[in-house]
Fold this protein.
Amino acid sequence: MNLEFIQALDDIEKDKGISKDVLLEAIETALVSAYKKDFGSKDNVRIEISAEAGEVKVFSRKEVVEDVENENSEISLTEAEGIDSKYTLGDIVEIEVTPANFGRIAAQTAKQVVMQRIREAERDVIFDQYKEKEDELITGTIQRFHNDNILIDMGKTEALLPPSEQIAGERYEIGERIKLYVVEVSTTNKGPRILVSRTHPGLLKRLFEIEVPEIFQGLVEIKAVAREAGQRSKMAVSSSDTQVDPVGACVGPKGMRVQAVVNQLNNEKIDIVKWDDDPEVFVGNALNPAEVVSVDINKSDKIAEVVVPDFQLSLAIGKEGQNARLAAKLTGWKVDIKKESEIEAEPDNLEEIEANASELKANLEKFEEEAEAAEEISETVNPDDDVEEATEDLIEEMSEEVEELEKNTKEN
């Protein structure tokens, strides 16, 4: 090690931001291990590096004791006084044991330590740089394929696009530049690990933030996103300015803004709907493009019962239930869709029927009690079979009427 090496440490401190003192401390620690390994020493040693000249010295450190039990770490008082009469019991004596060819070993070890520290510092810089970009949009170049994973060149490092984050049916080619959503940045033994996605709902949100100036200005806000990547998405937006139509702002003139996002997402269909604090209105909007007749909210079960025209039922549900499913994800409500004809078939006087059934049932119970009393009297006073038979027929007829009313009530 020489003066040029020390000057190089000064340059590294300026360029890489790694403290010179930290580097020297790391080199000293590494040289202790190198000395013990190469020279088979078991002594307790200390390395001293001159920050001015770059000179390296090795000192064996021993404690002054009365009787020496371990020659690697202890020295007798008599021997210590032979070195310097000021030593007393318990003092630490340092004896220089620098090998003749230790300079070459020191230079080699120092170089390895410095290179390692530089790599670690660069990894830390990259980690800090991309950690700030979590939940943000980045652009990278497809570098290579590894199994089903895609490695993205980010300039100073690589990002990982696993199969689970790739859009089904989307083709990827080496050298192609694509926009990605940063899901997570973590540290590993090999450096920072950057996980990116093409399927995350956040990607849709960030793309619209780029295309729609009103979102950047804070006039339009994206309130919720539901996505089935590569097929269809729904996005709810609101406006802080009554003069700004949030849906129109996101669609853009002649649909240019939304089309720009669609082109970035493998022609994924995107429904933009207006957000509303009223869940009935919001659920109705979320089922766009289907028309909605009415929405009934069941807050306890978190269910929205939606009525649509008969000819709009398939549109409201969507292919394989996709439209209803995305509306449920977007709103957070379970959506139950019925066609209008089913609701119209239900009687409007259901409450009246129920009341009449209850009243008739009460009258029947009262009549049965009076009939029983009359029957007891007729048994003691020459019973008339015709009267008794007529009474039984009347009771049976009234019971059947009550049962019919109860049946109709349950069906409706």
Observations:
- The CA atoms of residues 235 and 272 lie 5 Å apart.
